[in-house]
Amino acid sequence: MHIVILPWLALGHLLPFLELAKRIAQHGHRVSFLATPKNISRLPALPPHLSSLIRFVELLVPPIEHLPHGAEASIDLLSDNLRPYLRQAFDTFQHELSALLRRTPPDWILFDYAAYWAPRAAAEFGVPCAFVSLFDAAVLSFLGPPSVLMGGEGARTTPEQFAEPPAWVPFESTIFYKPYEARELFEPGAVPDASGVSEAYRFGKSMQDCQLMAIRSCKEYEEEWYDLLGKLHKQPVIPLGFFPPSPPEAESENRAWSRIRQWLDELNPGSVVYAAFGSEVKLRNSQLQEIALGLEQSLLPFVWAARAPAGSHATLPEGFMERTKGRGLVCMDWAPQVRVLRHRSVGGFLTHAGWNSIVEGLASGRALALLPLMFDQGLNARDLVGRGVGVEVPRREEDGAFTADGIARTLRLVMVEEEGEALRAKAKEYAKVFGDEETNDRCVRQFLEHLEDHRRR
Known about the structure:
This protein is an alpha/beta fold. The chain has helices at residues 11-25, 37-42, 83-91, 93-103, 118-123, 137-143, 146-149, 159-162, 179-184, 199-209, 219-233, 255-265, 285-298, 320-323, 337-342, 355-363, 377-387, 404-415, 421-434, 437-453; strands at 2-6, 30-35, 54-58, 108-111, 129-133, 212-215, 237-239, 272-276, 302-305, 328-331, 346-351, 367-370, 390-392. The chain folds into two domains: 2-243 and 436-453, Glycogen Phosphorylase B (Rossmann fold), CATH 3.40.50; 251-434, 3-Layer(aba) Sandwich (Rossmann fold), CATH 3.40.50.
């Protein structure tokens, strides 16, 4: 088959979609991967044996008022307020997609939630579309059917409605937003923005118009949510597996990893906390300070992938680097997350609970200290706490503020205290699900079999 892949302009979407592309290519199918030039340059090199099967197709970002020059992914934006303009630029790609389909109609298009217009463009050429969700079935079920997401019958209109399980979930569930998270959903971006539609509408329209929904998860992990999702959407819902990143190439690949690895090699197995908050979160300086002091107060060895707050340079607490010298390693720009998590010295993961990071953390068997900050992260955190593989950092109910003391206490519980023993054992059990290559490959094979059976005629 020839399959077109169209991810949203965020590293947390581009990277897993590329991993999926590689797994598809391993089965002998051709992939056209659509992305902007700058984002293509950010992606890891393809394995030589797959390079002839995966073709990158460049999409050029047009000038958009208020969108900074050179911004091609969410990581390039200094403020979350600029996201609508990136979405506006992304929406212009529907014309380029139509031109591509006119020249060479593929057998399928696999598209991300933001490209809600892809099925409409594809229908003109008789090309079927699969909505590929990088969110799990539980989160999609909480969001609800298309009519709810698109503002129709049953639409939720108040924060209070998001702070409880929705009426369409027929079983007991702890997956819902905390009041301060629910209020954030009604800030700019949740409603129609400069792009003309809301994020919720993109999800609803994508799921309504596609011929197939494919979820980055598996039934062994959340079977009841898969069953519910199929009933809500009245169409096939296929598990894709977790497709954790492929094993890294040679250890000597980059200097940053070499330095971190040498440092980790000197420490005891399972003794180190890895802290990272993904490429989407734009921490305020006050939050960065509390995280730093929490890592310090925990008295645990740590590797911290610390990124500067939006629009500024990171300001760490005075004397922090000196006081934690030898015990902590701070990477101000980037750290090879998968490699760090897989190192034997790492035992726990302080994370924002983004689905990518959860997959990578649990595939490595790491217990989770959870500090959700945006989007689906609060829902993921509730799910993981309920499953006994994570603990949430305590937050102030009014505004979600957290403290260094709360971070330190959570880290010690997850890493060393007797109370966390069951948590650490459970995380290792989950590695057998998330990191099992046989399960992940089986899911991809079954997905591809479905695509072959229903390909463009």
